[in-house]
User: Fold this.
Amino acid sequence: MQMLPAKTIVTNTKSAAGWFGARYNMNIYRGCCHGCIYCDSRSECYRNDDFDTVCAKQDALRIIRDDLRRKTRTGVVSTGAMSDPYNPFECTEQLTRHALELLAAYGFGAAIATKSDLICRDIDILREIRQNAPVLCKLTVTTADNTLARKIEPHAPPPSARLDALARLHDAGLHTCILLMPVLPWITDTEAHLLAIVQRAKQIGVDFISPALGLTMRDRQRAYFYAALDREFPGLKQKYIARYGTRYQCASPRAKALWATFTRACDEAGIFYQMHDITRRYQRGYGADQLTLY
Assistant:
């Protein structure tokens, strides 16, 4: 595996309570090998010309340790925003596992986003972290259909494996969340798709679902997405071009109706979907603003 130099890894979020209430971001790897056709991280603004190749940050664990020791406040550390922390190389590298051990040692929480059931390997450490700080396990599920998933997320573990992982995490007493994002116009933006995910989430005890009823497109990522549409869904690219042009935010044409269906199903299932509810509930019982000096 190629190693990339890094000066810091655990960085502050743009706001005091960022995405899912995280105070810090942590990306140990760079690039991703899932091949998801919609991934915004391919965009030029992220300056990764070889996005499909996974690299690791050199001397990552020492840097993470030093970053954590310098923080004057603990808080939730988010990981998985720009690359999956449980890519196939993690099976042997175990950088994410050892980073979680550092979070546990220094009293930080964790909010993990992944498409891999490998997260279940680290249930023991996640439970250790939860003794003193919040933990949220987020797995992306854009469709419950394994066959369709192979077209839009060709190298990621199938959604059936991710749903099974959510069940294991729930049974271990950890807060779980489905990232229902993106919902792809004319591909997964149907009531049947959304209801299948909500129903499965209810069966396995998922606490939260966070949806995005559309996708984002810009520059290099748009070109990659359109090439994939030509390959997997012939003729669909023209519908995207006609409706969205060069727009960045591309909401489903059925977003309003889908939102009504989705929220009604979640309310009936007792599943929370608003960001403030998710953050408040998984962080409940922990002192979010404790001052710590290491």
Remarks:
- Residues 12 and 24 are 4 Å apart (CA to CA).
- The two ends are 33 Å apart (CA to CA).
